[in-house]
Each structure stands twice: as C-alpha cells, then as structure tokens.
Amino acid sequence: MRIMHLYYLCMEYSLEIRLIQSTNFKKDWSDHALWWPTRNKWLSRPKHTLDQYGVHADAALHFTPMHKPLRIQLPDLRYIDCKIDFSIDTFSAVVQLCKSLGIRHPEELSLCYPLEPSHLKQNYQNLKEAKKIKASHPADTNTFIAATRGSSNSLDRSLPCPATPPPPRSLSATPVASQQNGTLRRYGGHIYSTQSDGSSDGGYCGTPPRAASMDALDSLAELSLADSPLEPDSQSRESLLTPKSLMERARMNVGWLDSSLSIMEQYVREWDTLQLRFKFYSFFDLTPRAQDASRLNQLYQQARWQILNQEVHCTEEEMLLFAALQLQIELQTLTGGGLEAADGSNSSGAAAAPEDEIDAALSELQVQLEGGPPARPDITHVPELAGYLKYRGRQRFTLRAYKRGWVSCRDGVLRIHSSRDAAAKGDPPSYHVELRGAEVTPDAHPASGRYGIKLEVPSEDTMHEMWLKCENEDQYADWVAACRLGSRGRSLADASFSTEVSTVKSLLALQRPQPGAALNQHSLPHLDHLQPENYLAPRFLKKLKSKFTQRVLESHANVKDLPLLEAKLQYIKTWQNLPDYGQTLFVVRFMGHRKDEIISIANNRIMRLDPNTGDHIKTWRFSTMKAWNVNWEIKHMMVQFEEGSIIFSVQSADCKVVHEFIGGYIFLSMRSKDANQTLDEELFHKLTGGWT
C-alpha cells in the first residue's frame, strides 16, 4: 500500500492512523501494514475495502512494520534476537525461523510463552488474557514509538537511539571449545541478530555502517546451533520449571501459541520473549549427518532438560546411561570431535563427506529397490512366541504372587496355560489377553538381572494390570518386542519384529555397567569438573552422589567410542524408549463428572490417566478414531472412536491446544518417506485450525 493512498484513506474515512511526524517518504514501505489494535487484527488483505473489515470513522489504525524484533529462547536455553514476521500465522513464522536457523522439519516445532512457577499452582485456560492486560498498558509498544528501548523498525529514524537491550543471559555461560559452532557472535558490541528470512540487521538501533552490515551477512553461514555451551548460566537454569506432580506437569502445556493466528494477534509485542520448542514428538528422518546437526543438538538439549527436570521419569540404570552419554557428548565437543569428525573431513579430505553421503544414499536406494532386508522363509502358519514365564495379575486390594506358566503369543493374543503339555492338548487357557491397545512398560534392571514387563490391558471401563517376569535378557527382548507389536495390532509376522528385538538388546547392552573398564578412564579430561547435579535428576542425587564418578565411568565405557552426532542420536533414542516419552498432558473434566482428570496425547493414542498415581485408566488409539470436533461456544471437545465417543472440557489450557495436538499428530503421520516432499501448510491448517 502506497503512503499517499494511505493518506487518501485517512481523509475519506477520517481515520486516525498513527505515524511519526518526521516520516521519510522515500523509504521502502513494503514491509509495513495496517494493524487494528481495538480488534487485535491485521488488515492484511489488500483487495478488501475498509467497509468489509468493519472499519468506521472513529477507528484508530496503526501503520507499522510486519517484521519486529523478538527474543527467542532455544531448547538449549540460549537466547537469540531476531526479526519475526508478526503478520503471518505462527506456523509460517516458525517455518521461516527454522529455515534461518538451519533446523529441518519445522512442522515439529512451535513457539510458546515462558511460564512462571505460579502457572503450575492452578489451572489457566488461556494465557492470552494475561498478555492482553499487559498489552493494554499505556507504555506498550503497540503504539510503535518506543519509550525506553530502541527498535530497528521504528518509523522515525531521526529519534535518538536508546540503550541497547541487555544481552541474553545464557550467552554468558561457559562456551564450548569450538566458539564458531557453539556460540552466537558479536559485531560492533551487539548480539548477533538475524531476520527470519535469513538476512541480518547487524544491530538493533539505527542503521549500522555498510561494512558492519556486510560482515554480518557474510558470517551468517558461520552461525550454527549444532553445538551448545556445556552448561547455561545460573539464571537460565533457575528459570526452568520442575513439576512436582502429574497435575503440575499437565499445566505446563498452557503456553503454546495458536498456530493459526499471527504472533501479534496473541498479544506478543516487540522485544517480548518466546520459547522455541519441539512440540510434536514424532520426528522424521533423524540422521547423524552434518545437515541435521542443528536439529539433533537442539532435540538432544530438550530431551536432556526434560530428564534433569523430572518431566520424564526413568530408572537408575537409565539415568546413569543418560549421564554417560552426556559426558561422552561433552568430551567429544571439548576434543573437537564435532561436525568435522561427523563429516569425516578432518583426516580424509574435504571430499570425504560428500562421498560418504552419496554412498549412504546409494545404499539406501539399493535396499529400497531390493525390497528391504531378506524376506523370511515361507510361512505356512502364523508365527508364535512361547515359553515359560512368571506372571501375576492384580486383585482388587492386594497383589497376587508370581506364578510360573506356559505363555504364548500369537496373532496379538496372549494365552497362559499351566504347562506346555496343557497347551499342546488344546486345553482352554487360564488367561486370554488381547494385546491390541495395551500399554507396554518395560521394567529392566540389567545390573541386578531383573527383567519385567508391565501390561495394562484395556477393558470396557478401565485397564487391567498384568506383569510378566522373564528369565534372561534374550527372552526379555523377544517378549517386549512381541507385546509392543501386539499393542499396535500387529502379529509376529511383521517385518519390524527383528528390528524391535535388536533395539531392546542394544539398549540393554548400553545399560550394563563395566566396572573393570572404568579403572582405565580416570585419566579422561573434564572429570575434575563433574558436578552430579548437572547429570542426575534430583531424585537420584542423594543415592548416587557419593559414587557418582565411578558409576558414570562404568556406564561410559559402553559409549566411549561414539562420535558426537552418534552419541546425541543415541541419547534421543534412549529418551524415546522411556515409558513417559512423548506424552503431552492436560487437565480435563469429562462430561458428567465433577472431578478433574488427566488425559495424555501421544503420537498415536489418547490416554486417560489417574491424577494421583498416573496409572492408565483407558487408551484410545488414533487408528480407531473417526472424528474430533470442538464446540467453540462452550469449549467442549468431542472425539469419536469406533468403541464410542468421549466429551470433555479442557481445564489447564485452551481447547484449541488439544485440538491442535490431535490434528498435528494426524498431519505428521501422513508424511511420506520421500526426502523431497514439500510441507503442505494448507493441510496442516485444515487438520489443526478448526473454526473460530
């Protein structure tokens, strides 16, 4: 919109449009648009008239830049200052931001408001209202005339440039050995700032010198998020929230921004702080390659802080494995085993990395053309897994003792007989369990030789609990794989059975300590500075603090040969195998009930949980879901499944957030394996936008 056309509109409609008096008419105004603060909306459709927007003569419109400065906290707790398009929907803004940061698959991430400890004490259905009250303050930057801080998008360039905002706190943390890869750069006394389109402003106030601006543009390729400081500063660490109960963990999801609305429409103003986080726990094509280094590092950092803050629980052996992998990542970073080692370019020349990627692509293509791994022999009957196991069910008030029986799994059905002969005779089983829709929780302790499997089997009203106890590691791996496939409705003839078994065995091997190998690792660097609180969740500190170094070194012996990206990928895979992984919780109230309950949304199911114990009450799979709808007037959500419908109201967030999680996971499940697929933003909004 031309500026003279804007003045014509002012005279025709007697509108009040706020502009700086000393406006430079020769400036490029292509980045500016009209904002209607009273209705909290952009007038972004140039073909629409003001009458169509409902603008009357007494309306006040703001002619303001669409790209505004915003402070973003990354998953590794560092802050970056960048320009974000405040006029487009949040999903598109995240896509642009991730493109400039070098993070692939931006559909897995989103922005959220920073939370405070008070937000965990009670339910908040909407944080926008609190932002709205704050945005209505007289000194708000909605007027776009900064009173206390300078802005690179101020309309009046003749105003004096105020003091630069304080630098992000986390950048003062202890840097990694590779400064170019691990920290953001400074130019001319400013923290490096990028725009979401990949350009740089070289600073925050005024127009920087031509040379400084070109230096910033030339150094954009050096800006990398593939490495992070070893530890954030104390203030950034203290800003993390540690939920003390399941209810508090569910209240942590109130801060997600609406992907269908623009950032400005959600009462975010320039220089506000938002957090960039992985929102959907369905990660596509995670590879230990240089092209995915930034994404792997940020995902590793988010997983690390979830574990250390006890958002996700793990066993003692798993905690030590996480600590060992974190130590290996830090050692590889300090010794320079970063992207150079991952690319293979430090010793074999610059052409080694491209050749390795070409060889990997050719190998992958060969596997696809040959139809994958070698096919199994001809099967004349459905495969069956059987053996003697100890099992127990759960009575109403007490736990039964373990019994030994002949357990078989075939076609996703678990059958238990008193003996092998009884099964061979065709006697009816004492237990007959359908595994489809069951929750499978492995409970392995390799150090003590205990291998258990917890099954929560669905019934009409609740989940029945059953335990299986295996005799050795091999038997445990087979039965965990069989139960997991059965819970997904697959039989043992599925090609992924052997892969599942191998994954379980490799994870058990990493958890097995090696006391003898630990004696040879005390000469490793960085060991004198190990602080247990940086590697262990608080619930393990008291027990493991005295023997922390020895126990970590015993676990580190299993991962000491992993390169940097492989260690990060292994950390992520171990995190993905935790029972609590990928569960986004919400406090809800089901129709006809007066008490608050908790639902968990994962990438393939919705679960109803007990708020006190966390036990699964009911599980609904997305594969049986017919539709999901929201009554926007009363904020009730209905999800229809083959076995029936559930209706509930969300107490700890806006119902749009739950609607978006369900639609988002459906969208991510529709991605193809084609590496060249394009992001279908229109389909994403159809599945997540709803009607508002």
TrEMBL record:
Please tell me one Gene Ontology term that the record gives under cellular component.
Answer: cell-substrate junction
Q: Which residues form the PH domain?
A: 382-488
Give the matching InterPro entries: Band_41_domain, FERM/acyl-CoA-bd_prot_sf, FERM_2, FERM_central, Kindlin/fermitin, Kindlin_2_N, PH-like_dom_sf, PH_domain
Question: Which source organism?
Answer: Leptosia nina
Q: Which GO terms describe its biological process?
A: animal organ development; cell-matrix adhesion; integrin-mediated signaling pathway; system development
Q: Which SMART domains match?
A: B41, PH
* Polar residues: compositionally biased ranges: 171-183
The record, for PANTHER family, names: FERMITIN 2-RELATED (PTHR16160:SF13)
Q: Which SUPFAM superfamilies match?
A: PH domain-like, Second domain of FERM
The protein's name in its UniProt record: PH domain-containing protein
Residue ranges of the region described as Disordered:
149-211
Q: Which GO terms describe its molecular function?
A: integrin binding
